[in-house]
Amino acid sequence: MGHKLEALLYEEIGPLPLVGDIRGRGLFWAIEFVLDKNSKSAFLPRDNFCGKVVKVALSMGLNILGNLGHTGEYQVDHVLVCPAYTTTEVELANIV
Asked: pLDDT for 21-42, tens place per residue?
């Protein structure tokens, strides 16, 4: 199922203009959001972009994990998608 999730993320989410990177393995994946895909410039912390993504996802019935805080000098907006091991292919498609 991890390979199916990976393929769906790259196919459906990867081309979006605010997605800077997709990384992970198995059923544990992170989607990084950037203000500009070419320069990989980050959103300002006050934009709370990741928080907004998590809020919208939750309103749609999807519980994803957003930023856990910022450490060091880099600001990275990302969400974690980690469905249960019992997730079906249809459920993966709905999640993505």
From this structure: 999 999 999 999 999 988 888 8
Among 96, 59, 51, smallest CA distance to 77 is for 51
User: What are phi and psi for residue 80, nearest 5 degrees?
Assistant: -110, 130
Question: Is 71 a residue whose pLDDT tops 80?
Answer: no
Q: How far is CA 18 from the centre of its chain?
A: 11
pTM given for the model: 0.86
Cα–Cα distances (Å) from 5 to 51, 71, 72, 74, 76, in that order, read: 23, 28, 30, 28, 22
| Backbone torsions φ then ψ of 42, nearest 5 degrees | -85, 155
Q: What are the residues whose beta carbons fall under 8 Å from the beta carbon of 49, sequence distance 6 or more?
A: 18, 33, 43, 77
Q: Three-state SS across 27-56?
A: CEEEEEECCECCCCECCCHHHCHHHHHHHH
* Residue matched to tokens 């600001």: 75
> How crowded is the C-beta side of 47, counted as CA atoms within 13 Å?
12
